[in-house]
Amino acid sequence: MNDTLEFFDFQAPVYDTFQQNCIPKYSEALDVAAEFLAHVLPADQSLDFLDLGCGTGNTSRRVRHSFPHAHICCLDGSAAMIAGAKRKLTDLPNPNIQFKCADLESQDWSNDWPDESFDGVVSTLVLEHLPFEAYRRSLSSINRVLKAGGWLITVEGYAGELAQELIMDEIEALKAKAVRTGLISGDLMAELDLLSLDKETHYFASMDDKKSWWNGAGFRKVEFIWQYYCVGILVGRKPTR
């Protein structure tokens, strides 16, 4: 297990509380991602989605709301996150959800699926944890498992000194509020901060670089559809034949 996954195993019990209360615009970003997919894909059909780095299943839950007949595969490298996603998602009506524990840094995470398995691939605040080589390799794997005409949509952090400084200031203020109001204990927050500093790694590229990588991997209509400081939503489509 890489160090970042070790951090997320530790964070899993308070992941939802942290994301909802300490990450600016987290819920809004999930809503935008799901709403975009509902605009570009037929919601009344049984579609197949892959949630890369599913965490505790928040993105998948939003997708199922927009696509009630969808089949979703949730993938995460943290066994604790997968366990949380199972608890959250298996109580949905007609859940039709599968779970897979695999590290996106590995070269074989997508080998279980044949070409063109999914209508959409979505990833929220995950791919920024991949070294650039692994990121570009994952784009090729995603393109392979996407059906022609399918969409990739990611929520990611990007490079930008001022934008990162501003969002980190906001995160720190939200964390202080979470402790002050008793949502997360001060001791636990301090432990999360120390472990994040020691274990959690981010690899921030520019928005232009990411768009170039996506285009190079074969995606088209690559565009940012939402941004808040250094966090953006990037979409791209696998061309039809």
Structural summary, described in words:
With 241 residues, this protein is α/β, with parallel strands linked by helices. The protein has one domain (3-237): Vaccinia Virus protein VP39 (Rossmann fold, 3-Layer(aba) Sandwich), CATH 3.40.50. The chain is 46% helix and 21% strand. It is built from 9 helices and 7 strands; from the N terminus they run αααβαβαββαβαααββ. The protein has helices at residues 3-11, 15-22, 26-40, 58-66, 79-89, 132-145, 161-180, 186-199, 207-216; strands at residues 48-52, 71-76, 97-101, 118-124, 146-157, 220-228, 231-237. The protein has a 7-stranded mixed beta sheet, sandwiched between helices. Helix 1 runs antiparallel to helix 8 (186-199) and helix 3 runs parallel beside helix 4 (58-66). It starts with a helix and ends with a strand. The model has no long low-confidence stretch (mean pLDDT 95).
